[in-house]
């Protein structure tokens, strides 16, 4: 193995390979920071450029875009409360409050370091444990996927803010919107109202851009653009986070990275589920959170970003070991390899060992470059907040429209985004949290489809859920997640009664 690692590392140090890698990272960072311009979209557009390259160079370009885009989605999440990519939505909870306190630079640096830690852990997991993790991930069937989605929905209790009732209503609204389109089991139309564009459902990325981007802009306009005293001075001194911050985020970054790899290895799970679950686990197990999660806690940023970026290497585990794509980007990567008559799967570890370790070492180096570019670029990204809001928000609105239309080349998605922005603005005025709505929109289709498929397989019996050890364990964890907040609230009251 040592020989393969050395050979792989020496191969990717070729100047042209490094140039492609760096170009991919910078392009990914740029595209990922634009709301709606996802890693999948960017990789798909540039896939054809790799057809004439050798497999190593082509993979380095695409993996650079992949890693850079997943990382940079946190930048607008911190600065303007609009995630650049779906998996960066959880970063808003603590990233944007830090920005409001004048610590956007600190938030981006924490995000960068946590992304690096999660990415490195994912590559190490890919390199040393991929066959084992892939075998475990293949055990997930409909009952296990339902349990995982249900576990994700229980996070609504953690992101509802001061009012659990409003959080639940927001989550239910998102779940209701997710039912629009073709029924995944029967094929019947649901709530389409004769509109052809609704047959494929509501694009959750368009809704997310509207809820966070457009709604935030409308809120700024309603409060008065460029009003005196509204702008927050940002502290942008230094490049590396303080030693105290690094010590604070180290444990949660490592644990969230491990969790992100495992979740990312489950085909179809993705970085958004990984980020929300790792963030939720951090809020549940860290007792001494000061400030509280949701108010600018750096460990919240670290948990979300480490889990998010760790899912990239996790998604490559079933891709390379079994030929089963872990997410949409890895599906495109399978196509990139297929052009060169290379079929991912067990034979890849025997017939293409050299290429395999070049991918491992290249992806490792990509996250090193992301760390460097992220820390050095934080000064420049933070300065965007200092641009006059009368100039900044129109530009953001234009980017939001472009991002929404670019999803499917459909103007209808732009109208969906604008409608979601108006709804998000009203919800914010009434004190309803928006994060639960996004969670419901993302996870409800997964939960519904796999619940109904499981019941179809079992003839309507719920036995199928507790007969699966994995599903049973996840459902028990879900129950604990729901009961624990109630127990914490009731236990002090019981103590007072007993005393």
TrEMBL record:
Pfam families: TctA. The keyword Protein biosynthesis does not apply. Residues 18-439 form the DUF112 domain. InterPro entries: DUF112_TM (IPR002823). Keywords: Membrane, Transmembrane, Transmembrane helix. The chain crosses the membrane at residues 6-27, 59-80, 110-133, 145-165, 198-218, 355-378, 390-407, 414-444, 464-487. It comes from the Archaea. PANTHER family: TRICARBOXYLIC TRANSPORT PROTEIN. This is Tripartite tricarboxylate transporter permease. It comes from Haladaptatus pallidirubidus.
């Amino acid at each position: 193995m040592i020989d393969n690692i050395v050979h792989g590392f020496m191969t990717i140090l070729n100047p042209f390979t490094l140039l492609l890698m760096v170009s991919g990272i910078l392009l990914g960072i740029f595209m990922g920071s634009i709301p709606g311009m996802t890693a999948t979209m960017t990789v798909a557009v540039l896939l054809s450029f790799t057809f004439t390259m050798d497999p190593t160079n082509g993979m380095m370009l695409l993996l650079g875009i992949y890693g850079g885009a997943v990382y940079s989605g946190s930048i607008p999440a911190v600065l303007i409360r609009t995630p650049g990519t779906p998996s960066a939505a959880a970063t808003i909870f603590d990233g944007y409050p830090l920005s409001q306190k004048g610590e956007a630079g600190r938030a981006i640096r924490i995000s960068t370091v946590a992304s690096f830690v999660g990415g490195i852990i994912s590559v190490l997991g890919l390199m040393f444990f991929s066959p084992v993790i892939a075998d475990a991930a293949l055990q997930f069937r409909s009952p296990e996927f339902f349990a995982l989605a249900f576990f994700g929905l229980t996070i609504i209790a953690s992101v509802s803010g001061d009012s659990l009732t409003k959080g639940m209503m927001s989550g239910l609204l998102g779940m209701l919107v997710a039912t629009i389109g073709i029924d995944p089991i029967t094929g019947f139309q649901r709530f389409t109202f004769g509109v052809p564009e609704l047959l494929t459902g509501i694009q959750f990325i368009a809704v997310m851009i509207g809820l966070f981007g457009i709604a935030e802009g409308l809120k700024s306009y309603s409060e008065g653009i460029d009003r005196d005293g509204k702008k927050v001075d940002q502290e942008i001194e230094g490049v590396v986070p303080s030693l105290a911050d690094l010590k604070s985020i180290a444990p949660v970054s490592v644990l969230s990275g491990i969790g992100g790899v495992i979740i990312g290895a489950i085909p179809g799970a993705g970085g958004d589920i990984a980020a929300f679950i790792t963030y939720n686990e951090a809020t549940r197990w860290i007792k001494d959170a000061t400030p509280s999660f949701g108010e600018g806690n750096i460990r919240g940023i670290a948990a979300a970003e480490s889990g998010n970026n760790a899912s990239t290497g996790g998604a490559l585990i079933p891709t390379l070991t079994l030929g089963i794509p872990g997410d949409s980007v890895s599906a495109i990567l399978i196509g990139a390899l297929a052009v060169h008559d290379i079929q991912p799967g067990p034979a890849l570890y025997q017939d293409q060992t050299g290429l395999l370790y070049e991918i491992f070492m290249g992806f490792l180096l990509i996250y090193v470059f992301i760390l460097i570019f992220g820390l050095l670029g934080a000064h420049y990204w933070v300065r965007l907040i200092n641009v006059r809001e009368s100039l900044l928000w129109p530009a953001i609105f234009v980017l939001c429209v472009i991002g929404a239309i670019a999803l499917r080349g459909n103007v209808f998605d732009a109208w969906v985004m604008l409608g979601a922005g108006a709804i998000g603005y009203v919800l914010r005025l009434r004190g309803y949290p928006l994060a639960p709505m996004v969670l419901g929109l993302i996870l409800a289709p997964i939960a519904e489809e796999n619940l109904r498929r499981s019941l179809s397989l079992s003839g309507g019996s719920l036995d199928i859920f507790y007969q699966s050890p994995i599903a049973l364990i996840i459902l028990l964890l879900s129950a604990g997640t729901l009961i624990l907040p109630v127990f914490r609230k009731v236990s002090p009251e019981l103590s007072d009664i007993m005393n």
